[in-house]
Amino acid sequence: MERIPLVFERPAEAEQLERGRALVERFGRRRSVRAFSADPVPWELIESAIRAAGSAPSGANQQPWRFVAVRDAELKRQIREAAETEERENYERRFPEEWKEALEPFGTDWHKEYLEMAPWLIAIFRIDYGLNQGRKVKHYYVQESVGIATGFLIAALHEMGLATLVHTPNPMGFLTRLLDRPVNERPFLLLPVGYPAEAVTVPAIEKKGLEEICILR
């Protein structure tokens, strides 16, 4: 494989520290939003975020992800209805009591209006194996790779001033059907994207401090 010079910028240490502090502050303001404005979001913003996500590292550089950007109102309605069918079953029959107790402070239930309210839905699929002239091509570290790319996507959308919510209806087979995806692609998660509704509120939560998530040896 051909090798090319690395393009790498090494800022002065003071600038590195400043960038780090600014990033912590900006990311610290990111919150999951469940009520979206009807204000349109240009495709160019979604495109840029997906391009950023596509730059994520992946096992053997196989890039085992697919992003399906949905703006069609009727398709969003169908996705909402299918998701609510599964979520109602979850809340009423499938979820154990411990999980429902963990969710109770957030006031969530099987109603998922935001799947229609948000101007965009980005359905993320993991490509479990490649197809080359009918032959399966093994993919490596698929779950980890798609998770990293999803993190890139959420960060990029936040940096551009857009709000998101990670939605994982289970099971998600309806996304394969509604979005006409092939057998080697499996739904990973659904990301509503847009601007927050006016006067929207979010739960007063706190993130763990550095001493709880980091060990220095």
What does this structure look like?
It is a single chain. The chain has 217 residues and is an alpha+beta fold. The protein has a single domain, classed as NADH Oxidase (3-Layer(aba) Sandwich), CATH 3.40.109.10. It is built from 8 helices and 6 strands. The chain has helices spanning 13-28, 43-53, 73-94, 97-103, 114-117, 142-159, 173-178, 210-213; strands at 65-70, 120-127, 129-132, 135-138, 163-164, 185-194. The strands form 2 sheets. Strands 1-2-6-5 form a 4-stranded antiparallel sheet. Strand 3 (129-132) and strand 4 form a beta hairpin. The longest helix has 22 residues, at 73-94. The protein is globular. The model has no long low-confidence stretch (mean pLDDT 96).
- What CATH architecture do you see? 3-Layer(aba) Sandwich
> What is the CATH class?
Alpha Beta
When the domains are counted, the total is: 1
Mean model confidence by pLDDT: 96
Sheet with the most strands: spatial strand order: 1-2-6-5
Main beta sheet:
4 strands, antiparallel
DSSP strand content: 15-25%
Uncertain parts? none
